[in-house]
Design brief:
By secondary structure, the chain is α/β, with parallel strands linked by helices. It has a six-stranded parallel beta sheet, with helices on both faces. Strands 7-6-8-9-10-12 form a six-stranded mixed beta sheet, sandwiched between helices. The chain is elongated and about 60 Å long.
Length: 333
């Protein structure tokens, strides 16, 4: 089987809102295969399925599936720490006859064996968003997480505080993208005498755990005047903590990703900057490159960087930035 439709090279900066109308009109295929197996089957397996980030990723994947006449399924565990369920999903996709898997790893090391087994069974694997420790992956499509972490550092030192006393709230230490973001941040501020990292914690990737960890951090370290955090759920948790403590005027927050709530926090002051990724492009390109691999095309670029944008209260109303923050609303309007 081959993918039908003309394969085209798509820029890594694929506009986030492009093709969401396909998602809205058609919906995504159900994760249980009962579809036309005369078509190429691509299984998209991500770290979870519930956040706006992943819904946007699925929109991109579905648009590519529609364009290239593929069966595209989606699945992910209920929480972003459950690598065992992810491994079971990988094995099920293989047993269901997937031609390719587009994958975002919960755990850099613990997901590696299942991915290697899939490739050894003849399944092409494209990684998006969060990497896995496998040399058998054909292509990686994601934010340059190290550079994104450096963007956080640049946003921190752009403030007008006399001294930057920083707290870090990061997610699972076994997730490669979070660790690269933190490393990029730390390296970017290393040697800056105005920056002190006062405290750093790692939490499960949930809003509530991030909120409670942030509250404790601020209570234990009242000198902290900046908090940095690195994904959608921890960003919400940090924002809620600052809101609950009434510390929006005292603590500046540089966070990651966006949804309606975090954008509202950007407006009202609990969050001061958002590093916004391009999950739509990851989903779209992940499926497109999977189709290319299935067709036997040689991929020249095996590490593809999608875009990130720094959104602040000062630039959030610029039309291009509104499209980044509210991709679904652009289609409705």
């Amino acid at each position: 089987m081959k993918c039908s439709g003309k394969i085209r090279r798509t820029a890594a900066c694929l506009i986030i809102c492009f093709g969401i109308a396909v998602f809205t009109a058609c919906g995504l295929y159900d994760k249980d295969i009962g579809a036309d197996r005369s078509k190429v089957y691509v299984a998209v397996i991500t770290k979870s399925t519930t956040s706006e980030y992943w819904k946007t990723t699925f929109a991109g994947a579905n648009a590519a599936g529609a364009e290239y006449n593929l069966v595209v399924t989606y699945d992910g565990p209920e929480n972003e720490e459950d690598y065992e369920t992810q491994n079971n999903m990988i094995r099920k996709a293989v047993s269901d006859g997937a031609d390719a898997i587009v994958f975002s790893a919960v755990d850099y090391n613990a997901n590696a064996s299942a991915i290697n087994e899939a490739v050894e069974d003849g399944v092409k694997v494209v990684v998006i968003d969060s990497d896995v420790n496998s040399d058998l992956v054909s292509c990686r499509i994601s934010t340059d997480n190290y550079k994104a972490g450096q963007m956080v550092g640049e946003a921190v030192v752009s403030g007008d505080e006399d001294l930057f006393k920083v707290g870090i709230v990061n997610f699972d230490q076994n997730s490669e993208n979070g660790q690269q973001r933190e490393k990029g941040f730390r390296d970017s501020v290393e040697g800056n005498d105005k920056v002190s990292i006062i405290s750093a914690v790692h939490v499960n990737s949930t809003t509530e755990e991030a909120k409670q960890a942030t509250i404790k951090m601020l209570e234990d370290n009242p000198e902290i005047n900046i908090i940095v955090t690195f994904n959608e759920w921890t960003s919400l948790g940090v924002g809620y903590a600052v809101q609950e403590l009434g510390m929006a005027e005292k603590v500046r927050v540089v966070a990651f990703d966006s949804n309606v709530v975090s954008v509202g926090m950007l407006e009202t002051g609990e969050v001061d900057a958002l590093i916004v990724q391009n999950p739509y492009a990851m989903g779209y390109l992940g499926v497109e490159y999977a189709c290319m691999l299935i067709n036997g095309e040689k991929i020249k670029e095996t590490d593809i960087d999608t875009t990130t944008t720094l959104i602040t209260r000062e630039n959030m109303y610029i039309p291009d930035n509104q499209k980044v923050l509210f991709p679904f609303e652009q289609i409705k309007n």
